[in-house]
Amino acid sequence: MLSRDGKKILRGVNLEVGDQEIHSIIGANGAGKSTLAYTLMGLQGYEHEEGSLIFDGEDITKLSITERARKGITLAWQEPARFEGLKVRDYLAIGAKNKGGITEEELKDALRKVDLKPEKYLDREVGEALSGGERKRIELASIITMKPKLAILDEPDSGIDVVSLKEIVNLIQTFKENGSSVLVITHRKEIAAASDKASLMCEGVILRSGDPLEISEFFKNRCIPCDSRVSPPKAA
Amino acid sequence: MTQITINTLSNEIESMDAAYSAAGGDAAVLHQHELASLVISGNKVLNANGTEGIVLETQETKHGVDVKMTIKKGYKIPLPVHLCFGLIPEDGLQEINMNFVAEEDSAVELIAHCTFPNAVKIIHRMDAQMHIGKNASLKYIETHFHGPHGGIQVVPRAHIKIEEGGSYCTNFSLVSGRVGYLEFDYSVDAEKDSVCEMVTKVYGKKDDKIKVIEKVSLNGENARSVIKSRLAITDNAESEFRGITEGHAPRARGHVDCMEVIQGNAKAEAIPIVRVDNPLAKVTHEAAIGCVDKKEVETLMARGLEEDDAIDTIVKGMLA
Lengths: 236, 320
Ligand SMILES: Nc1ncnc2c1ncn2[C@@H]1O[C@H](COP(=O)(O)OP(=O)(O)OP(=O)(O)O)[C@@H](O)[C@H]1O
Ligand SMILES: [Mg+2]
Prior knowledge:
The complex is a heterodimer of chains A (236) and B (320).
Chain A: E1 2-4, E2 7-10, E3 22-27, H1 33-41, E4 54-55, E5 58-59, H2 65-71, E6 73-76, H3 88-94, H4 104-113, H5 118-121, H6 132-144, E7 150-154, H7 165-177, E8 181-185, H8 189-193, E9 197-202, E10 205-210, H9 212-222
Parallel strand pairs in A: 3-8, 3-9, 6-7, 7-8
Antiparallel strand pairs in A: 1-2, 4-5, 9-10
Helix pairs in contact in A: 3-6
Chain B: H1 2-22, E1 37-41, E2 44-49, E3 54-60, E4 64-71, E5 81-86, E6 91-102, E7 107-115, E8 121-132, E9 137-145, E10 152-162, E11 167-174, E12 181-190, E13 195-204, E14 209-218, E15 224-233, E16 238-247, E17 253-262, E18 267-276, E19 282-290, H2 294-301, H3 307-319
Parallel strand pairs in B: 1-5, 4-6, 5-7, 6-8, 7-9, 8-10, 9-11, 10-12, 11-13, 12-14, 13-15, 14-16, 15-17, 16-18, 17-19
Antiparallel strand pairs in B: 1-2, 3-4
Residues 4-5, 9, 27, 29-35, 78 of chain A line the site of adenosine-5'-triphosphate.
């Protein structure tokens, strides 16, 4: 549970993400999806008030962001930070620091995977005149170099052009193939469809989890306007 | 006996090479004969190598060296001139008096490393007079390294005169290791059609004290200047920045841009001063003091950095 200004933002979250599972979180704007992501990452102001967070069998509820990251959890923000003066190559290398560093070829490869030309981007600044979509791609590349056990991606498709949506879907699958579990927050049917499982979030509650297409359909047809206010939420 | 002297000297050269590398320089450049260079350790000139178009005179004094460097008229020096000033011991005093002249139509780039890797109780004073002749150009890049102890006072003062059509571009950087006490005071007189760009980047920690005063007088018509400072301070460090620009002539343009990032108990003060007494001159300023962006810090932590390393990385980006 997490509250803000006396208002409960996360109220009933019961979520399980399996090994090498792509799990999408869908739900209306303001449902609490980003809040859930921040809570999992342990950001300041998003500490657990009740309940626990178990990762690989270990209770990580009290761990700091850094400790969680070193256990293999990471987050790609919905709106990435700007970083004046920090070079793309240095940003990408940070995630690999605790794993004995990164080679030039791995750096280039991470950029190619998000469809950015390495020679054009490696030595640019993350904050310098990059477009919103370019910054989103670099954010994803920084997750690739980290080789996380759990990648939390908050709307990786926002700001990415429709043509490239397929690449994002491929990328999410690559994470899985490389051994990561992926928790992806999305408004796109294509991404939900490529998931192994989906959960529907509504007003701070995980309403139900299950087959992604079924959950998407439920969200589209039954959930707007949201009916969780009248019927008590129950997790499926 | 001679042998011994040479040994001492070459040891000192090695120490200075190591110190130069510690300050971020590539020591090999100090030994290439086709490159002009000047290496001063304490009050000893270890190396003074001029090349065509450069006249280099040095005079050892009690606590330092008087240096006169002249770039002859019309000479555009193709490769940067490397300067290295420093003191290897833990304590001492070094006073450098510099007189730079870039004669008419000449061009030169100076790369200076000032290095005090072991400083516990050191005073380094520099007094520089720079004269940039008509249509001449001087680029001066100065990087300092003061070691980890903070027991150093560094007081660089310079007066720069830029004649008609000349340009002066300087970049002062002190971002790794401790600062100690820094009192940086540069003033520039800019004549008609001249250009002046001053960039200062300093990272203060523990009880470092930083004082930066940069002043440009735009005396001539169409003279232009930018003063840009990036100061980051943490722990109990204190900084004071004054960027003064005076517009005295028609179409003179000046801008002061100061950004300071503070952490911990650090205290920062930024005072941009703008004086204009010609109605056709225009001088603008901006100053911002704040803390490091929380999202940037948390992003780097989510990539596995400790909070302190995250802040350090962000600040170093800003200071790069
Ligand atoms: N710092 C905060 N203080 C107070 N309320 C907040 C704060 N952050 C978020 N909220 C509120 O919590 C609710 C959930 O926000 P959240 O950003 O998690 O939604 P979301 O599901 O990610 O929405 P979207 O699809 O628009 O990204 C919203 O009603 C929002 O206004
Ligand atoms: Mg959101």
